[in-house]
Amino acid sequence: MTKQEEEIQENIDSELKKSDSKQNNSSKKSHGEILKEQICEGQETYNKKASSIILSSLTAGLEIGFSFLLICTLFYYAGGSFSEETLFKLISLVYPVGFILVILGQSILFTEQTSLLTLPILNNKREAGSLFRIWGLVIFGNLLGGYLMSLVLIWIGPKLGIFEFSTFEAIAKHVTKPDSLTIFVSAILAGWLMGLLSWLLTSSSETISRIVIIFVITATMSFTGLHHSIIGNIEVFSGMITSPQIEFIDYLKFICFAILGNAIGGAVFVALLKYRAFVYNVDGNHTNY
Q: Does pTM top 0.85 for this prediction?
């Protein structure tokens, strides 16, 4: 790092400290305050042991499966009353439940953590290699938890009479129907929304408002059909296990493009843009001096 770069970094850190120490009578947080909290939260994840990260992300993969449980149940029971197209819109009413459980329960979900974990890299507090290591651990835990929850639901659903194997097939076919490029761009938009979700949650401290934010963002993803890698993992994996119409290549295509798209959406369109907007403002203020 050159002397000029060190001075710029010192200015950024100084502004972040000022934002953290400001006393504001209103509940509204400034851009700098939110950014400061986001960087600190990201740092906390980096400081955790690998075993803790894997266990927490495994828990998130399991918990988000409750969304899939409700999706399948609604799809099965409302199937005789609505068209399939309408059913996939109605699913948005129950889709957020797993996200609420995961996020308020503070389990580590890849798409929510994408921008959080990128910010310390942008702020020169961590190296890029450590980012990919953490991402790898979180993705592994989320996917593994999803596989386990999928196997449980495949077994329990028909026994309780709340859905059948045909339900898994219909949902998986719907998720994997678009071509690879469409899934990729759709996943970027979903990752963008999840990064914004993390940012908005930091700006709010009340539980009710946080639940509303989670519901609005995730219901938007579901209603518009955007691809979320972690819950989509359960949807497509379940279809692959129970139906010959969903092949391994369909699962592989989905999970690769969805993870990559989600990562880009959160890291670039939220973390990078939000951080650079703050930095440009800092540079402008110091230039004026």
A: yes
